Amino acid sequence: MTEDASLLFSPFELGGLHLDNRLVMAPLTRARADKKTLAPTELNARYYAQRVSAGLIISEATQISQQGQGYAWTPGIYSEAQIEGWRKVTSEVHRAGGKIFIQLWHVGRVSHVSLQPNGSAPVAPSAVASQSKIFIETGFAETSQPRALTLEEIPGVIANYRQAAENAKAAGFDGVEIHGANGYLIDQFLKDGTNKRTDRYGGPVVNRIRFALEVTDAILTVWGSGRVGIRLSPVSPANNITDSDPAALFFPLVAELSARKLAYIHVIEGATGGLRDNVAFDFAALRRAFNGAYIANNGYTRALAIDTLRRGDADLIAFGKAFIANPDLVERLRRDAPLNAPKVETFYGGTDEGYTDYPALTA
Q1: pLDDT tens, residue by residue, 255-290
Q2: Which residue is catalytic, options 71, 184, 264, 358?
Q3: Homologous superfamily of the 3-346 domain (CATH)
Q4: What is the pTM of this model?
Q5: Chain-centroid distance, C-alpha 176
Q6: Which residues lie closer than 8 Å to 10 by C-beta, 6 or more apart?
Q7: Which of 61, 111, 133, 138 sees the fewest Cβ atoms within 10 Å?
């Protein structure tokens, strides 16, 4: 192994947490929670425990409330059953020597009335439909028309984030990641293509970043800043979201997050799961603007990961689909061994097939 390659497998201290290597398992929605309680199960615990060689595991996106749900059979962190289910996961991960953060999620407008309390409309900063598809119990469907959150409702949503952070601590997680990316609620408040508000949460950048910062501040009353990160996607069009000037938005946001001494920003570089250069954006400068760790994400190969670390453009590298199909991804990358191909048809919902049955290296 070259000296540059060894960087990928070198230890890293993240907010006082020792990571064995620079590889992060990205959040991966798999839609395999208990269908009645939306609590993680023994199967989920086995899945995560298989992947503990990652320096850090970030859990699949986990809704903070029923209102925050946008896909069938995704786990929550708002009930006792869900807390207990996640406790099984964290116990197995820790028993095997791993570290795990939970990703806290509210989908906002990216939902369907069949998933919402009493069949009500999904909520969003503004009543702008996403016109994207989601996975519900009967298959894929168009998202429902959202309604705008009232000013009086917003503190309640922030309180749900705070309670979810409390519940995550009770469930035994090592920290939390705020999902501020991919066109979900926080991202909807950030970007002017979805935020048409004229009150203190809309209009100029200082107002549009307010919701993200208030959520962050609420979570920081529960967790130390070294155990809190946030995921951002400055230029991703995921779920039909756009902003007219991403640099003017995200550099001030990151400056505020940096002042709060968050452990990391987890940045999707380019279009989620797509082109890394879909829109011109200086991710290296964003990394320099933040005084914590920078987790780089999107389309990383072994070679690109090593080169990015060598240049100092990231501290940690997140892999997604590769971790689905390769429970021993760290060892495969260490040896530069071939990777299993993921079974796309088993990504969402189902049993252990395409979930816990991928083979590890045999020698």
Answers
A1: 999 999 999 999 999 999 999 999 999 999 999 999
A2: 184
A3: Aldolase class I (3.20.20.70)
A4: 0.98
A5: 10
A6: 21, 22
A7: 138
